[in-house]
Structure formats: C-alpha cells, structure tokens
Design a protein that fits this description.
With 381 residues, this protein is mainly alpha-helical. Helices cover 67% and strands 5% of the residues. The protein has 16 helices and four strands.
Amino acid sequence: MIQIIFCSFKRLFRNTTNMFWILIFPIVLGTFFYIAFSNLGASESMSTIPVAVVLTDDYYGEALKQTVTQLSEGEDPFLDTTFCSEEEARKLLENGDVCGMILSGSQAKLSISANTSADNIKQSILAAFVEEFNLRCDLLIDTMQKHPENAEKVISAFQNPHAFNEEVSLQKNPNVDTYTQYFYNLLAMACLYAAMAGVTVAVENQGNLSTLAARKTVSARKKSSMIIGELIAATIFEFVLNLIGFFYLSYILKVGVDAQLPYAILSLFTGVLTGVSLGFFFGTLGKKGKEEKNGLIFAVIMPLCFLSGLMVGNMRVLIDRVAPVVNRINPAALITDSFYCLSIFEGHARYTRNIVTLLLLSILFIGLGILKTRRSRYASI
C-alpha cells in the first residue's frame, strides 16, 4: 500500500495540467477577485462631506458654527466645512465643489444642487443632519424658556448621548464582507477540480482504457487495494495543493476565509475528498478516454458551482428558496456553506450537517466506482 501511494504521488506531481487547474488557476482567479472586490469596497466607503455654511450674527449662527466646527475636526471628519457668504456658497454649490449649502437662522435651511450627477446619499445625510440640528435647537430654546434650571442637563445630554441599543455583530469573523462568498465558492471549485485526479485513478485501473491499467489487471495485487491506495494518494496530494491556495487567500490576500481554522481545514479536506470520489465515479462510466471524461467532469462541476453562487452571488439563496433540496446534495454548495457557517454562526449544527453529507456522498461515489471497476471483465486486452 505504501509503495502504491508513493508511486501515485510521483505520477501526480508530474501531471502539470492537474497542477495548473488545482493550484495556479484558483490563485490567479482569487487574485483577480481580490483586485476587483477591493475597488468595489473602496467605492462604497463613506468619505467626508463638503458643505458651505452661511452664518448669521446671532445665537443661531453661533450654535451652528460650534456644531459644524466640531464635526469638521479629527482624522476622519464628518464634514469639510467652508464658511462664506451666501453668494460664494451658491457659486460653490453650482460648481459642484460642495454637496450642500446650510443657511443659519431660527431654522437652519439646506440648499442642494438640482444636478442629477450630485451625490444623493451625501445630500440625504446632510438633510438628516440639518433636521436633527433644528430639533435640538428647538428643544434647548423651549427648555430655557420654560425650565431654565434644566438647560445644563439638556446640553450635557446633547454632548453625551445615551445609547439605548447595543450593537451586536451577527458574524464571528469581522473580515467577512459581501464579496467573501465568492472566495468560498472559489475554494469549493478548487476542491471539486480534484475530480481530475479521481478520473485518472479510474481510467488507470480499467484495462481497456490504458496500457498501465492493462498491466495492473494481470498483476497479482488485489485491484481494490490498488484503487484505495491511489485514491488516498490523490486525496492527500490534492489537499496539499488546495491548502496552499487556501493559505494564499488567508494570509497573503487577507481574505476572511480562515474563521475557526481547524474546522476550515476540515472543510477543505472533506471537499477535496468529495471531488476525488466524484471524479473516480465518473471515470468508471463508459469507455471514453481520460481527456473525454475530464471534459465531462468539468461539464458537471461548473453548473454545480453556478448553483452555489460562483458566478451570481445570490444564486445559492435563490436556489434555497425555490428548490432547497438541490443545494442539500450539491457538493459545491455544501463546501461553500461550510465556510460560510464558520464565519457567521456560533454553533456547528449546520456545519456538521454539511460535512456529514459530503462524507456520505464521498462514500457513495467511491463505493459505486469500486463496484463498477471490480465487475469489469476483459476477454482480450
């Protein structure tokens, strides 16, 4: 058995096509994903809002000045304030240099540009800010008129607002964002690409498909032991290649795919085992050669990856809503969901269900494949 595994390692290491699809291609594609999604994340981040402020020479103007000055300080200020006259403020607004113009008074007023290319989100934030400022001014004035002894308490409450809600993150891994699911799917695809090694094991143990298999058929060694040894070697070798890609995503690109690392590695190993067993089963079907069967396995894997969300991010959610049974037996979706569970959920019930399902699929594929190859008889080779 040890000799079989060692010889299988040497053959796998010489298979450059397998090395490309399992190691090089996922790393290159993952790098492209990282570049594309990093730019998307940068474009979605909120930046400082430029605003022009026109002050009046009274209490309202002084209150507005103090407020916007505080919001314009610090390393990452909320506002980039320009104090100027009303005429200058309108010119800045027309030229698009500011998102809005605030006029002080008993009720602060916001003017925004009618230009459709203006930043509507920032304008909405400014509108909410002006509304909140007016509410606080009205409350403070009303308190000073009716209960002046409580004015200091009101001012203190404004300066130190009480939080009645607690912010709780629904995910365990803070590095996970909307686009991390694409990297989960990328890992699932790489795991299933290990099916090519399984196809090789199947073809090289069918005497009518290769000369190497013909020699194995007439050898004294038990066929099932040779198949199991080669499957073990294929699984270990493909797992190591996938592990390199996994650590590249985790520690070079800093993508949040390594939540609960031991369980994540177990997900990777189980996914590779499923990929090898899937390829082994398909490799035993029909009398076509290795290249044709590799083409067949690619034709099977890519739709599975599509249904799990590799090409369209919310596809897995849509499938779960319309036909949930599909992704309960889809290896790509099960691998993806395993990584997802580790990053989001505290418990491991759903994760365990995914891993057990993958193991059962692996046992089924290997069992059917061995049964198919053992039943083969050749009148002439």
